[in-house]
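Ticket #4471: complex job returned nothing on first submit. Input attached below:
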Amino acid sequence: MQFLNKLLAIVWKDVVAELRTKELFSSMFVFALLMIVIFSFSFDLRVERVAEVAPGVLWVTFAFAGTLELNRSLATEVEGARLDGLLLAPMERSTIYFGKMLGNLVFILAIEALMLPIFSAVFDLNLLQPGLLFTVLLGTIGFAAVGTLLSTMAVNTRAREVLLPVLLFPIILPVVLSAVKITAGMLDGQPWTDMAPWLRLLIGFDIIFATVCYMTFDYVVQG
Amino acid sequence: MIEIQGLTKSFGHIYALRGVDLQVAEGEFLTIVGPNGAGKTTFLRILATLLKPTRGFVRINGLDLAPADVEVRRQIGFVSHQPLIYSNLTVAENLRFYGRIYDVPELEQRVEALLSLVGLDGRTHSLARTLSRGMQQRLSVARSIIHEPSIMLLDEPYTGLDQQAARMLRGLLQTVSNKSHTVLMTTHNLEHALEPADRLVILSGGQIVFQAEAPTLSLAELREAYWQHTEGGRSLGPS
Amino acid sequence: MKAGSRWGDLLSGLSAAMIIAALYLVFLYAPREATMGDVQRIFYFHVSSAWVGFFAFFVTLLAGIGYLRTGERRWDVLGFSSAEIGVTFTAMAVMSGSMWAKPTWNSWWPWQQEPRLVLVTILLLIYLAYFMLRTFVQEAEQRARFAAVYGIVAFASVPLTFMSVRWWQRLHPVVFDRQGAGLTRPMLLTFLFCLLSFTVLYFALLLHRTRLAKLADEVNELAQRLHSGWGGRT
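Support reply: We reran it on our side without changes. The output follows.
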């Protein structure tokens, strides 16, 4: 129970701090809107083609907005060495990992929740189906699991904004591919059985990487 | 008490600490002085479990650092020139957060008591970023003792403080570090070094080069020893 | 020093001989393939390069685990040396794959038809990310740790990426796929020999590269001692 209490304390701290300034949230929101606008113009979206591109556009937007969040979230800890504050506390390093991961998850999900209705309106598609929402959740979990670990590394360097996507994107490719396939399948009205393997892959990824990342986090934060 | 034997720390092939042996008794106030690059910060950070030693062992209150580090952290309070507080949280929220991750019981009362101890009860609901540097450092001290640690590690705590703030901090540290606390403080300012200390150690080039009982040492003698062992403040390698 | 260079010379000599033999096998011994003609011969080099690319990354993974467990510099040296060789062979695999693709599918980048080419390219991206990470981390010890962790995490992603890229084009994805090699005996022989000779070449290069890194470390340490006025040996 102590573990849970500390975990939630970390998440709570991040949420309260963000609610004060809303800096991160507003910049992510503006960024995501910008991406929709740019994509709308670049693809010259006519009604027949929309359903084909929509899943890709959706997930690319989420991936880039998510990267923004990951960088900022770890930056607030590292500026002023605040990560030390967490490392000094009597808890396992993995508690810090899960606390930050959960915080990242909450923020990215919040933006996604805001963007889905907007996407639905712009693309004239129903993106608010339960199956799709579940996929968004699973995909974001995988993204946050790997992203939290990698952003902890990238934030220590002087090229953090560029380095994080370079490190992250090749690794989360299975997440993006699965999520896009499932999203596309749902919009097409395909049966669940067709998409079950992708779902299993996504869940498998989440479990494997949450484990690998939590085990290696210790080595990243302590020298 | 703290037992340290053969403590060595290397970063690649650069040695920050080269076999430090030290014993600190319970309730003792030990000041460590030395020039920049002597290894003072590295030393303290290892004791605080923020770094792992390359070789040697450290035992704090009978607990070996490596396997028992969670328990060790419960007994340590760490203050550095970084206040480790969250700018967008209020003073009270900062303390409440640290209280939660340190499993402090009866948190609300503890936070109130600490705030009045460090003289910040007038600023309970101010955002931490609106505090002056001196006030931030006071909040940092409150943060570091919220869990009533028996050992205090202070890494150049006076850095960046003006005269008045330094005086307040000194008073605060004296209140806090009475005989029931073991204190290790590092500083490169020799004036700050002598006054509160029981014992004094000079660290240079990653090794202890001088030790003395503080009450028997005058400031002039300290300056002389410092100059001699560090050749005018330059960190030396092994001779 | 002497023993090291003896092994190095031996491996260099062996790999040179084997590569020459492989060239003979690929161009003169192996029969002309029925449908694709001589272009098909690229296949031998392409697959062997890709194999070395993956194998080298596996070695980097093992080196990463070794470093995290022991903190010894030699594991880090093994890690980045293997990665350097791996990235080279992977780049070769991508280029040779593209050269093979053009006459086969009339496209320099048959993204849809050949998922394995995509996979090799992703491996190349991972390698580049690994080196970018190493470049931007200033402190040597931290660099070794981060590189080790990234190697582990990235390698874990490879099987999953393989599966997802493979399934991308299919309507009904399957986990295991039986694919007949479609190779006659002489072709199979050539293929296996090529694979072996590339592997020997990898080890020869690895030996030389790690020796070079060790010498560079020694030079750096001496320079350090000279600079800080310590002098002498430990």
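The interface with chain C takes residues 11-14, 54, 237-238 of chain B (CB under 8 Å). Closing as resolved unless it happens again.
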